[in-house]
Amino acid sequence: LAIGIVSPWLLSNTVVRPICALTEAATDLGAGKVVRQVEVTSKDELGQLGETFNSMAAQLSRVQQNLEETVRERTSAFESTNARLQTEIDQRRNAEEALRWSVDEARALNHLLLAISDVHRALWVCRSARDVASVLTGTLVEKFSVLSGRVWLVGKCEEAAECQFKDQCRSQPNCLHLASSSGHYTKTDEKLKYVPLGTLRIGKVAQYGNKIIVTDVSREDRTQDPEWEGEHGLRSFAGLPLKKHGKVVGVLAAVSQEKMKPNVLEALDILAGLGAAALENVEQVNTLKRADAAKSDFLANMSHEIRTPMTAILGFIEEIISTHPDLDDQESGLCDHLRTISRNARSLLQIINDFLDLAKIDMGTMSVRKVRCNPCQTVAEIASLMRVRSDAKSLSFQSDYEGTIPETIVTDPARLRQILIILLGNAIRFTESGSIRLLTRLTNAEGKNRLEFDVIDTGQGMTEENAERLSRPFSQFDTAPMDDANSAGLGLSIGRRLADLLGGDITLVQTAEGLGTTFRASVATGALTGVDMLENPTEATVLSDEFAAYSESQLSGCSILLAEDGHDNQRLIAHVLKKAGARVAVVENGKLAIDAAQQARDDGEPFDIILMDMQMPILDGYKATTMLRQREYDGPIIALTAHAIAGDREKCLSVGCDEYVTKPVDRGQLIATIREYLPAHSDQSPS
Prior knowledge:
By secondary structure, the chain is α/β, with parallel strands linked by helices. It contains 19 helices and 20 strands. The strands form five sheets. A six-stranded antiparallel beta sheet has the order 3-2-1-6-5-4, with helices on both faces.
């Protein structure tokens, strides 16, 4: 019995309980509780199994701790890496945002720079202050994307009826005048057409000369136009003074629906500066125009005042000499005296013509009429004319050709004559003994055909200093030790400019003091395709009797009305016309000319020609011609005037004149011009 009772107890303590403990420990180990240990009470097989289990559990615990430590380290490293990546991502995002902002800013800045460049070009072609204002306001709206742009200019206060600030204006001599307005909101333009200095923001800008920038109008205690702000979302305002020499001459104002960026404000400063400079440029241009107009008026009046009496002087001297050939036989030398007077009067007239030509060239109104003409004919005519002058000084004159010469060229024969007369006239003037030679040749350089004219004299020549001075425009007018050589300067300057207009030049080929001078003039010939080339042409074969035909022209049976207020010129011109066979009626002003022309037409005997002086009392020739054309008078009217400045011919033709003749009157030219407009001219030939 005792053994039966003790045996189960021993079995339970030594076998079952350790096995249950191992089982529970194994279960906990499987659940991850690696720190669980079993109690070892014996050194038998179960005890050894328990120790082995505890050793395995301890090892698993160390492995788990190492693993957890590794996981924590890896997690920390991952979190650190993730933080760095996030920082880099944020930095990249910020950089991309900054780059996008920079690109947008660069585009905006480039847009503003292009706008400023465009407006700069537009401003410098403006011809009035209002044009400048219009360009500025248009630029503000189109290029700067503002809501509205306006420009006011400082002007005299006129107390206009539409002025909204009359009380303030009465105390000021000047106020702001609205010159231009652009944009979507212009209903206040009428209200702001006139603004006193010191009134509103723009008035304060004008009064104090400082710009006013308002970044948010809605935050101001007092908004000038609440309706405007509510309707259009006005947010910012910029008012900048337009200054000239430190004085405010206007105000540039802009309003925007958003806050204006710094670069826009800087661009507005530049725009205001450009606008002020353009206003100053307009004033200078207008001043120059007024000066040019005054110069033109002065030259025209001087031309008229000198040419009018010169007509009578030259005309009556020529008449006396031509009608009294016996004066040459008298010992008194009266005919020589008259010729001396005539020669000096024509010299004075040539100086006047030179000044007028120089004025035309300076003003850019000198015109050339290029036609196909015979250059040998022109050379022969000039040679014939200048030979008379050289003979008077006992100088030999020779005209030669080198090589072949085209039968015709395209140039202005009148200007070519003028160039040759200038050069040959100077050569004769400064040559006391010896000869004058005119040598003509055709050249081709760089595919361009030109005629060259060498004027060779054996005169006093020039020093190197004087020769060098000739290459500088106008310097030949200055003080020079070469006796009266200065008198050649004006003509030479004109000749050089005329040659330039004809596609050539005038150059000094060679000179030496005491050994003579050679000048060379050149002109373009135009195309020579199909033009005959002449071998060694001579004066005799080309000199025509054209001028003789003019002097022999007759006006037999022609009825002429002469409207001329100068008594001496009335007598002279009427005498010349009557001597040519014409019937002449004379009146002294434009009103009488209209009455006489209408009366003759009503009587069925209209005048064949009306010679109309353009500057007369009571009614001048311009108004008289205009009125005659308005009354359907269709007969020829030839302007007869002492005005010879640029634009005078066009002015005469514009009022209805058919042709234009200047004083002093060249009787041959006058008669030839009259014959050209006679009704039967097409059936006549010069007699």
